[in-house]
Amino acid sequence: MITASQKRKENIAEYLLYMWQIEDIIRANNLDIEKIKKNVIDHYAGLTDEQRRQMTEWYESLIDMMRREGVEQKGHLQINSNVLGDLVALHQILLKDPRFADYSSEFYKTLPYIVELRSKAGEEKSGEIETCFNALYGMLMMRLQKKEISEATANALRQISKFIAILAHDYKLDEENKLFENDGKK
Q: Contact, 160 vs 132, CB < 8 A?
């Protein structure tokens, strides 16, 4: 909750990846708040009783949302899907706006990797931005499991990371009503 709030303000991409991880942590604990208290909340050092209570309530609300939205096994909460949708909408605006040629250029450098990833996705094809996030989340999970990745995969992930970092930066500027100032110059 504390980390999520901070990430939401600072970097929307990190926030979304963090929230996907929280969804998986909740699933790994069988949507059981007592297990989450024991395995997650109790590992936060230095929490006050009030912070512990707030964190417990936050997890309880996420568990409730996951149950109501039917994403107990897989999928994402609507609040996270909305963030992704906002990023997709901004992406489409930036691609169409000639003032953001640098953004478009970075996207087209990333597109071959996206196409390759989508070709490997089988039946569960995602949009371009979601494909990027799926790749970044997959990399995060591989790092946590201390798994090796090939040099080709590392190169693809570097480009995807660079592109998503630009999108996240532009998102923050847009939230601050600064993106379209000065004809799109940052």
A: yes
